[in-house]
Amino acid sequence: MAKEKQEKQIDLLQGTLDLLILKAVSLGPLHGYGVLLRIQQLSGEELVIQQGSLYPALYRLEHQGAIASEWGESENNRKAKYYKLTRAGRERLAGETQKWNRMASVIGSILRATPEGA
Amino acid sequence: MSLTSIGARIRSQLYSWFRAIFRRDELEERMESELECHREILTRDLIRSGFSPDAAARRARIALGPMLKHKEEMRASLGLHWWDEVVADLRYGMRILFKSPGFTSLAVLSLALAIGANTTIFSIAKRLLLDRLDVPHPEELRLFHWAADKHVAVSNMWGISDDTSTGMGGTSFSYPVFEQLRRDNRVLQDLFAFKAVGTMNATVEGTAQIVQGELVSGNYFEQLQVRPQLGRSISPTDDVWGAGPVAMLSTSFWQRAYGSSASVIGRTIKVNMVPVTIIGVTPRGFTGAKNVQAAPDLFFPFSAQPLVEPRGKGGSLIGEASPEMWWLNIMGRTSPGVSDEQAQAALNVSLDAAVQASLRPNSSDTMPRLWLGDGSRGLFLTRQFFGKPITVLMAVVGLVLLLACANIASLLLARSAARQREVSVRLALGAGRSRVLRQVLTESMLLSAIGGVAGLSFAFLGRNALPSLLSNPWEQAQFDAGFDWRIFAFTALVTLATGLLFGIAPAWVATRTEVSSGLKETAQTSTRRRKGLGGKAIVAFQLMLSTVLVTGAFLFMQTLYNLAHVDPGFRSDHLLLFAIRQPDSRYPPGADLALHRRIEERLRTVPGVDAVTLSEVALISDSMENTNFLPEGQKLDSNKEQSAPNNAVGAGFFKTMGIPIIAGREFDARDTATSPKVAVISQALARKAFPGMNPVGRHFLAHWHPREGKQGDLVEVVGVCADTRYWTLKQDLVAIFFEPYVQASNLDYGATYEIRTRQNAASLAPALRKAVQSIDPDLPLMDVRTQREQIDATMQQERIFAALTAGFGVLALALACVGVYGVMAYSVARRTNEIGIRLALGALPQRVLAMVLGEASWLGLFGIGSGLAIALVLTRLVRSLLYGLQPQDLSSLAGAAMLLAFVSLAASWIPARRAAGVQPMEALRHE
């Protein structure tokens, strides 16, 4: 039974979906379905991504050279495309992660501000 | 992101994009299989988590979502979206263009012709009128001119006079004047001089040839800053008295005669029988200082002039030998800080002193005044001779370009009006406005691109065909028209811009109209009526341009016809011409006359020859002789024009040429070198010099040269001949006198032989050549041609004009026809409903016919009327190019108007018939 806790809109996740994919692939080469599973796994089953919207993002990242693909055999003995991180992708992952953390702390500090005075 | 990472990303994107395009099928397959694989694994997982296989499959499909959309997004990620759209647009555009082949081919043809013609003509114009000498800093060069009134001290000139309406002027100076100007010069850089002497006899490696030569001063190459590509240049040490004759070759001559062999340095070439040492080759592209278009074959220093091109007293024009002969051109580079006015003033002083010293003028003579002209294009004779015709040609092809653009515009407008519905359907189906516009843009650009490519090939053809148009059958035209990419780009840009503008503008309007009204076939919106006017305005514009072009064509064709049917005054058929130019060293004055007598007699014995004669100047060859002439009873008056054209001819000239003798006799065996001087004068001269009396038996004085110490001859008139044209067909009633050549002082420029024969040139020429060479094997027959060909050669310009304007006129007619047809057909189609109602209400079909024809007539009236008005103005500008008719020639104007009226009525006939044949019920049902 698939748990569906939080489904965020894809539009909002546009930039972050790329980041999540890069992170997922950084831990080892995966095919499309595998990337999906891993992201869900890493999020502790909190995040569910719409199935089909993964592939445009994967193709875009490959187009930009952040990930590279290789053909191999999947679990059900079919030819499947496995994606792995390239060096440029690794650099990008590091940079984007840093940016994300900075953004999160800045917004966090804004949100923590209390009204002045009593 | 750093710069390197951006670069890496772009590189990766490009690579990925190319790979996607070229391995498209593979890509599609793999996308499909990747998504399939995903679905299978998902299904399997769902089955594992407890769903039944069918339910799992269904859930998986739903979860995955629309495959098509995902694939589309995947393609978009790869950047294929844009590519796919462009390819689709192109395919659709090609289909649309091929669906109406007639219109498409007409549009492409008119585009191609316009682009090709414009590129060719403008390239030629640039070559003739704009290009500068191929030397460093040509804008520094100044050419020396002198100007004066008719009483100037200068009397002997060998060169081309400046085009002046009053007085005289030219670019030729004498050698002593040049030397003094050079000595005194403090205002320009060192002055140098040159003279293109024309054709010379040369023997190259044993073969006799005609070559073009140029005499130059010792500092010529140094001042022009031109370095030789082989050997060394002519230097000041070569230009001293007693130096051995040397020569430089031009690149084209070096290639032609010596096959670009490097061993040519040090070899000798015989010019005018004199051995000359070759010392170098000028660089490629160098054409001398005289003109930009063609290079002379050989360059000599002035010191070689008495040997290779003897003229003047004792054959020498240099030093102090012939101070009265003004013949060489002078140039100098400007010095920084000195203005042209300052230089002119200083040099004028020097010129005055030089003229005083060398010519010793008397008190009534005026002094020539010096002025400096631009020397960057040499003598710039092309402007003098070709300036007007080239400008007119440019205007004509400019009109053709406008016409082609108008044609494209009207075609595209008509097409977009017809596709209003299609645009509305697309909009209704959800296409964005920019997407529709992009599709129309692609179509227009496709049309322009096809036309542009065709235009390029036309331009190449034109560039190759034009030199052959300009050359005579007996001369090689050394004219490299060149191909200027910038001009092609400009013309292509103009047509492209027209295509875009007239493709986009109606589409823009179409996308703005409401979709609902666009989909209805008979929707009447307020913008509709105005749209019809746009198309009509363009066709009226086309008719106007076509009227102007067709009028011009008629004018030039009539000019050609008039010229071709001018009676030259002699029988020009069956007459073979060739020139013999004997070398002066072997045949000094006296011996040359004897030579020609021997040749004349020998030629008479050649079988096939009916009659032989010769003349100093060939008739209708754009050249003439002119000398002093004073009829008896008149006094010498230096203020009056006392000269006449003349020609020295052989015995039997008038009989051979078919010129009737009106009174007296022509030359025969009685007239020898020792018998009294006689002449035959033309009727025009008889009327002018001996009015009201019989000229036979009268005398006149001729050939006197006070400065040369020649007293002149007292000549008796023994005959009067009918008027004949002399150097050109355009000038009649020439007051000319003929003398027997045996009584002339010399024939130092050789003579032209006229052979009357019934055989053709190819079969007779070898026998003639053998006959001449039996007298002197080193004498070639030059310029073998028939008299008819000679005359035709002088009409070359008129012929080119008539041919080009006639061709463009036909094109203009065709375009006007198509334009009118298109606009009338559209108008009728638009009003089908209205016509149906009229017919149903009882109008006769003839009435409908008349109504449509009337609409077309208004269109024609506007277009042709304004065209005639403009033609009246424009044709006035080409007056000097016409012959035998006025620019406001009524027959041409009326002819053009009638032709175009006929064409436009004929073009609107079919739509009119169609309108009259409309079935009312069909039309009313046509909703």
Explain the overall architecture.
The complex is a heterodimer of chains A (118) and B (927). Chain A is α+β, with helices and mostly antiparallel strands and 118 residues long. Chain A is built from four helices and three strands, in the order H-E-H-H-E-E-H. In chain A, strands 1-3-2 form a three-stranded antiparallel sheet. In chain A, helix 1 (14-26) packs across helix 3. The longest helix of chain A is centred in the last third of the chain and has 25 residues, at 87-111. Chain A starts with 13 loop residues before the first helix and ends in a 7-residue tail after the last helix. Helix content of chain B is 52%, strand content 15%. With 927 residues, chain B is an alpha+beta fold. In chain B, helix 17 (526-564) packs antiparallel against helix 23 and helix 23 (796-830) runs parallel beside helix 26 (890-916). The radius of gyration of chain B is 38 Å and the shape is elongated. Chain B is built from 27 helices and 24 strands. In chain B, a hairpin with a 2-residue loop joins strand 8 and strand 9. The A-B interface holds A 1-2, 31-33, 50-53, 55-57, 59-60, 62-65, 74-76, 78-81, 88, 91-92, 95 and B 1, 5, 8-9, 11-13, 16-17, 30-31, 33-38, 40-42, 44, 46, 49-50, 63-67, 69-70, 73-74, 76-79.
Give me some keywords for this one.
heterodimer, A: 118 residues, alpha+beta, three-stranded antiparallel β-sheet, 3 strands, elongated, B: alpha+beta, six-stranded mixed barrel, 27 helices, 24 strands, 52% helix
Separate helix tally of chain B: 27
Strand content of chain B: 5-15%
One letter per element, helices H and strands E, the order of chain A comes to HEHHEEH
General shape of chain B: elongated
- The helical percent of chain A reads 40-55%
Count helical runs of chain A. Answer: 4
| Radius of gyration of chain B, in angstroms, nearest whole number | 38 Å
**Which descriptor suits the 3D outline of chain A?**
elongated
Structural class of chain B comes to alpha+beta
The total strand number of chain A stands at 3
